[in-house]
Structures
1.
Amino acid sequence: MGLFGGARPKPVAHRTQVGIVGAGPSGLLLSHLLARSGIESVVVENRSREYCEQRQRAGLLEQATVSLLRECGLGSRMDAEGLEHGGIYLQYAGERHHIDFRDLVGATVTIYAQTEIVKDLIAARLADNAWIEFSVSDTEVSDIDSDRPVLRYRDSAGVLHEVVCDVIAGCDGFHGITAVAAPPERVWERRYPYSWLGILADVTPSTDELIYAHHPEGFALHSVRTPQVSRLYLQVDADDDIANWPDDRIWAALQRRFALDGWTLQEGPIREKSITPMRSYVRAPMRRGRLFLAGDAAHIVPPTGAKGLNLAVRDVARLATALVAWLRDGDSRLADEYADASLRRVWRATHFSWWMTQMLHTTPGDDFGMALQLAQLRYTTTSRAAATSLAENYTGVVAA
Ligand code: APR
Ligand code: PHB
């Protein structure tokens, strides 16, 4: 009964093939890939379109991610504006070494911000008359163990909807509701005792390739966004507050950590700054009944290896193929393999991200740990075998 004794309004009833929760890169790309094979879906997102399109995230794409986006018709702006990189610099003990991916593994990576991919995806879906609901509330999934799972939400005007689906995809990130509806059998987690302070600055990047700098005071990363905009990160304490970091303190720390004879870090106005905690998290399985999880809803990696977005893209590429085979052709084998097959790549990326993180972030007072890091960095920059291992993992050409 409603508040004044009237019957509760009946939700508006709908039917679709795939109900997708979350309009991040996972949910939007899944919906796009399914549509290309004639599978219809709805995407429900609790934030506004503007919020989704402005949110600053990572922006480094593996070669396979670039190829996939190109092949499914999302390459035009990425190809015009993305910046291809053939390597990275590792810096430690006052030395800067280039790791040449083209030479070591014949592959490259591309800088193209996740937020731009989200804009391209939303534009492509809307041009296709896709059903996307932004600014929803009360998202709920039920009946996932039946063959007619149900997705419920309240639209931005307050009207309740109930969508009967064949399959539901949980693409709602680390704080979403679908992972709760399908409780994991097992969880693996590591929290790191530091965070990343990230800035966007209106200044031409001071480097041709990304610089990963090990420094006794803490890690620093010089990344880029465009020829006019730099993205930089600093290791800070896990419980640090952005209020402790006025712009001049940020630049002073960056200057110390990147210092190198004969090289200058250019400074510019800081447009945005925020602190992100770092953790590794894997859950299994990535499926329960007719609910499939993908992207950050199923796993989190620390940003050091830039794997989060790339893993999400691998998940949904696999999931889209599996759902097309199942819902269009009646073959459920790939859907049955989805959870285990995805986890193999998740663990490869989880190991690589952990390895980069522990090699580059310093802990005050841990002299033994610091000496080990320097030994590992020297090995990685002087042994072709070790450098090749980093290059395979970083570019994503590694088998998993
Ligand atoms: N109902 C509807 N939408 C929801 C709900 C909910 N209850 N909870 C969360 N969402 C939305 C979030 O607002 C967000 O837009 O789900 C979306 C999840 O998107 P992301 O967090 O970007 O996750 P994903 O799409 O898996 O992207 C992969 O890997 O490392 C990262 O930065 C990388 O965010 C990227 C991610
Ligand atoms: C980024 O540009 O945001 C970025 C690049 C490389 C990383 C992490 C983040 O390892």
Note: The CA atoms of residues 86 and 237 lie 32 Å apart.
2.
Amino acid sequence: MAAEIFETNSPDETFNLGKKLGQEAIPGTIIAMTGDLGVGKTLFTQGFAKGLGIDEPITSPTFTIMQIYESGRIPFYHFDVYRIADPEEMDEIGFENFVCGDGASIIEWAELIEEIIPPEAIKITIEKDLEKGFDYRKITVVK
Ligand code: ADP
Ligand code: MG
């Protein structure tokens, strides 16, 4: 397990980091994202989708839990589990079949369903540090 730390100072930089990981993603890539509201999880995800070759708009599926995009080079499953009360709810939408399938997945608020995140998932944490500026983000990637 190696931790890599990236520091960004603009939304674009975070988008581009996501894009880079999206370009590198292969079937079965899972990214478990942690970070407070408004820290940049969805922005990173938008970059990731771009890196997969998806040009449609990506919005946070807070109310639908999952959104599937099939217009990229591999399927993309975007989860936002903020409203999940119990990880068992994820069974109902077939979480396991998607994340262990033919596409790449990103899970926003992954810490809420920690017990069902596959161990091979890449863990990404995004944090603010207001002392370093309003647009500063520390992005820790653990592979
Ligand atoms: P989340 O999905 O974590 O709730 P969003 O991606 O929806 O967060 O929103 C992040 C917000 O923070 C956006 O309004 C974006 O413009 C802003 N922002 C400012 N600086 C950065 C940065 N360095 N990286 C990512 N987002 C940033
Ligand atoms: Mg979000």
Note: The chain has four helices and seven strands.
